[in-house]
Amino acid sequence: MENRVTRLLGIQYPIIQAGMVWTAGWRLASAVSNAGGLGLIGSGSMYPDVLREHIRKCKAATDKPFGVNVPLLYPDIDQHMRIIVEEGIRIVFTSGGSPAKWTAFLKSHGITVVHVVPGAKYALKAQDAGCDAVVAEGFEAGGHNGREETTTMCLVPLVCEAVSIPVIAAGGIASGRAMMAAFALGAEAVQIGTRFVATHEASAHLAFKQAVIRSQEGDTMLTLKRLVPVRLLRNPFFQQIQEAESRCAPVEELQALLGKGRAKKGMFEGDLENGELEIGQVAALVKDIRPAAEVVQEIWKEFCEIKEAICSWPL
Amino acid sequence: MENRVTRLLGIQYPIIQAGMVWTAGWRLASAVSNAGGLGLIGSGSMYPDVLREHIRKCKAATDKPFGVNVPLLYPDIDQHMRIIVEEGIRIVFTSGGSPAKWTAFLKSHGITVVHVVPGAKYALKAQDAGCDAVVAEGFEAGGHNGREETTTMCLVPLVCEAVSIPVIAAGGIASGRAMMAAFALGAEAVQIGTRFVATHEASAHLAFKQAVIRSQEGDTMLTLKRLVPVRLLRNPFFQQIQEAESRCAPVEELQALLGKGRAKKGMFEGDLENGELEIGQVAALVKDIRPAAEVVQEIWKEFCEIKEAICSWPL
Fold first, then answer.
1. Domain housing B149
2. A128 and A268, same domain (yes or no)
3. CA distance B121 to B158
4. Nearest to B307 among A152, A171, A310 (CB)
5. Which A-chain residues 1-30 have CB contacts (< 8 A) with chain B?
6. Is B181 in contact with A185 (Cβ distance < 8 A)?
7. B113 touches chain A (CB under 8 A)
8. B139-182 confidence digits (pLDDT tens)
9. Is B8 in contact with B135 (CB distance < 8 Å)?
10. Same domain for A140 and A199?
11. ipTM of the assembly?
């Protein structure tokens, strides 16, 4: 399929694997890129030297385009950006912060920049900052999320209306049918996180992957809204947060409860009791752990099948 | 378009107007039915004699199928059900309660029954109770809503997977594009509320309709989660609720604050300060007050156009 996003990124299918912390290393990114999608290395959980190692291994593992996701609030961001330029990365997805500061820097090095937004006003700012495209990420997405709680169904048309650069939909998408829904709403590509957590190549702990595929409807919830809203899988740690929030515990208590390293503990070390388990609502529809290439192929196949089905409707 | 829902309801287009309180009287319902969709009278804000009057006026205004929405927790439900049977209503949409009690009664009078659900497990119960179809209503919908917070994008596939009866999508749908998205996810019809509030025939107060079309992204929020979750437009009354909830006010205080008659005050009397303004997230995409027939025609036209566009994609 050829459209503005496949041309911009030089990919075969408009399917982008989200650069998730503790999950999206070189194995996952290269597997997705080799399958014709766009793989992203999630730098948000990597020290600078670890990021460099992942970039080099990814380059060795694929000759297809891949990119790096950079959370803009990352403390070592200067070093990350330097490494990205030194290693010749051509595509960067930024998230969680203002695109004003770093977009011009990346563009001056000829890098394609895509920014992740939870609302149309942020999409406009990204366009004004010079971004080449935006990811419109809905309320149902896993991990950190916007305060407006706008769902993918409402967000994608709002962002498409606000900007002229291409829009990539994220949140609630794990199938070809949902990909078609996103395209019907105006998106030109999809960014998929949760479905790629449940792959062999994801660096997340097997216990976390198994918890994801076991999860049912209602098992994720957007929480910690008084700090930074984040969608988590229900577990004992989540229940502790809920208990504290239900009695209006002070923000300092919530911060202390969250502490440091909870995401690593949960997603990378597989501590399902005490860890922070970031995952999207669509986990309820994910039922198996598969090779990432099969996920890309299945989503694309179903997307083509639903296209044919739609064309056959006598209207 | 012919599918299981259009055949079940005897309608031309698989577009159903939600039976909203204070908004969906005989004028709106008959206008939508005359335009080829299914109009629903919202009985939840009507005394029994008012309901009978609306049914009779609707019958006089259209010879097309129309129905009545009945909230199952309505105090006068016995009288409502008796009137529905006496007046020869052929289609009932039930919501907000268990379908176990009333479905068999309605079916025994040859009435088609559709139940509104916020989750797959409730859809299964509706199917088991003998309902002919379900409405899967996502988190983004206006008014009362489920505790799981499952969005339309995730909910529709989950419900389609759980039941074999037809699924009607609701929440976030105000355009032909969104209708196509719902169909791609597996729905066979859409139920639309918010877009029909902003019509000439809606019985809601003009001040409320104007507030709806003025509203922007982020202007609605799901609130009162400790009572019954409800999505409201932000206004001074909403701010009072937020203030009370932010300090964990006791449930009794929230109940006293809500009081009685807030929905009528806001939506029917147009008190934008003190009234409860129930509306969906998609209000941010609704920009004008139009005749209901034009809304039906425009949505259908855009649905057909997006179908043609999808068919033209070279995959």
1. 4-203+285-311
2. no
3. 9
4. A310
5. 1-2
6. yes
7. no
8. 999 999 999 999 999 999 999 999 999 999 999 999 999 999 99
9. no
10. yes
11. 0.97
